[in-house]
Amino acid sequence: LQVRDVLMNRLGGLQVSGTPLPVVAVRLVRAVLPNMDALPVALGWVRRAVRRSGGLRTLLQQRRTVRPLVLVMHSFMDAAEVAPAWALMERGIEADDPAVRAVQERLQSCVYAMAHPEQGRTVPACVQHAVLDPVENEQLRTLLPILGVRQPIPR
Q: Mean pLDDT throughout 73-98?
């Protein structure tokens, strides 16, 4: 968790996917130099990752076949939960109600965001779908109806 927090706090806006390697190298150098105090945390993570991957020798032997893989699980929230939390967030207010505050924290940590270039920002996907696209959601309910699932008969 410490590594995640350091990366998100210091390098959260760093974009590297689909970027030519020389540009990635320059971006990494520019991001790392002002954050040298985070180096011990990053090196500790690299050391653990190499060990979990079979060790440096194994990685070097397999250098052309090892590919990083990131798995992300999305857990969308209900509009009834998102709307009040987002309304408060838009006004810069942290909720007093623990349930609403929990939704705010989930929205703040969401990495699945949708662009609003006209406003110069991104919003969490749950906000987009639950609050900003109610008409589209109604159309989707018609196009993709939720069907009841039959329960298996107990034996």
A: 90
DSSP letters for 113-152: EEEETTTTEEEEHHHIIIII-HHHHHHHHHHSPPPP-PPP
CA distance 77 to 82: 7
Confidence band, pLDDT 50/70/90 cuts, at residue 16: confident
Task: Give the orientation angle of helix 79-90 with respect to helix 98-109, to 10 degrees.
Answer: 80
**Which helix (H) or strand (E) element contains residue 106?**
helix 98-109
Domain locations in the chain as residue ranges = 2-61, 79-143
pLDDT tens track for 135-146: 887 787 788 777
Cα-to-chain-centroid distance, residue 39: 23
Give yes or no for a contact between 88 and 94, defined as CB atoms under 8 angstroms apart: yes
Token reading at 121: 């920002």
What confidence tens digit (pLDDT) does each residue in 99-123 have? Answer: 999 999 999 988 788 888 888 888 8
Q: Reduce the DSSP state of residue 87 to 3 states and report it.
A: helix
Distance, CA of 85 to CA of 78 (rounded, Å):
11
